[in-house]
UniProtKB/TrEMBL annotation:
Transmembrane segments: 6-22, 50-67, 79-97, 117-139, 151-170, 225-244, 331-348, 360-379, 409-429, 441-461
Keyword Lipoprotein: no
GO cellular component term, pick one: plasma membrane
Identification of the protein by name: MBOAT family protein
One Pfam family it belongs to: MBOAT
Cell membrane listed as a keyword: yes
GO molecular function: acyltransferase activity
Organism annotation: Formosa sediminum
InterPro entries linked: Ac/AlaTfrase_AlgI/DltB, AlgI, MB_O-acyltransferase, MBOAT_fam
Amino acid sequence: MLFNSFEFLIFFPIVFVAYWLLSNSLQKQNILLLICSYVFYAWWDWHFLSLIIISSFIDFIAGLQIYKSHTSQLRKMWLLVSLIANLGMLSVFKYYNFFVTSFTDLVQVFGWKPNDLTLNIILPVGISFYTFQTLSYTIDIYRKELQPTKNIVSFFTYIAFFPQLVAGPIERASNLLPQIEQPRKFRKTWFNEGVIQILVGLFRKIVIADTIGAYVDLVYGDIELYNSMSIILATFLYAFQIYYDFSGYSDIAIGTAKLLGFKFHQNFNIPYFSKSLTEFWRKWHMSLSYWLRDYLYISLGGNRKGIVITYRNLLITMLLGGLWHGSSWNFIIWGAIHGVVLSIEKLLKSKGFWGNLKGLSFLGYPITFIVVLLSWVFFRSQDLHSASLAIKKIFQFSLELPYVGDVNVMATSIFVLAIGIAFDLYLFNKKIDLEVLGAKFVPVKIAVIATVIITLINLFYSSSSNFIYFQF
């Protein structure tokens, strides 16, 4: 079920009313949330619901056993059960065909032509997100940073909670599980904040991302047909398409959770206003950034074992972060670009380079954006050949005019993008978090804002298009 669909428009109000009618019984509320979350996911394909249930059951048992085990060997064994089960399912469904195809291509260089070993596998929506979420639970218990829950309904609800089930934010058990197990009260302030954030999220997705995405899809659909300036323009627009698409999803997820009495962590904080790539990753997909830092980078040794090992850990973390996004060499190269630039930034910082350029620190904004922009070419391209061709054409930098197509459509795209950027600039300059913006408005203002946004959404809405991060 999509947030931007007619089905969800019917689904959520029913859940909201039924949920708060059960406010006197925490267990009944959680059972309702669990059932509704499974309905929400099964609406896409009920067959894959079994994977979430199996993963939840394994980690519920593993968490209890890790906590009860008195020897390090038993604790490690149960952690391995969790890791192998979850990463095994993720590997089969997401990476099997990629590794098999890569192996086949490699051995063919040496003249061996093996049989086709690929399988007709459908990638379950959200598997990357809920796998990381459930793994954080068992790892935190293993590290003695969290006590397991004994309430299976609470744990299953934590894994399947529908606002963030499909595309995050990736919530840690230390934040979300206590909220599930404690009584929740309806808060007027949270309701106001949630409504505004949901509307902003829908605006970002439907009005901005889907509108400018039409041009991006056209150009990246066949790179060979378009000149340098067309690809540069499409890449520029894609940077904002993926930002407004994914941040829009996060806004709706966070706002929806607030209406039900839950507080998620912020997932985006105007990332394109960053002076360095390090700062960018503190603002972009923050729940994934912190997950990779806490469970991968630090586990590898972080920056505690010398500068060379630190660079190695950064590269490994970003390579695997790229692979997490998709089973393609494009994503691995995307991760490698970020890993190399992050390492260079760390090296320059250790040499005091940035300290000598205080008067020119403003250059960090365009430099960071250009690096991110070039890396998006690999992220968006259909395959490695298309990405290579796009990069080649970009650096040819011909001064031919870009393909525009329908002038009215292009003008509309630029107009709605300008609105989005202007709004982000307002939040950036005023140092306002979108998560609390709704608390600043009285009901009359909220009604006016809601009317304007809903009107714009209806004007631009054509059909329910998937969010980009559904494919990951």
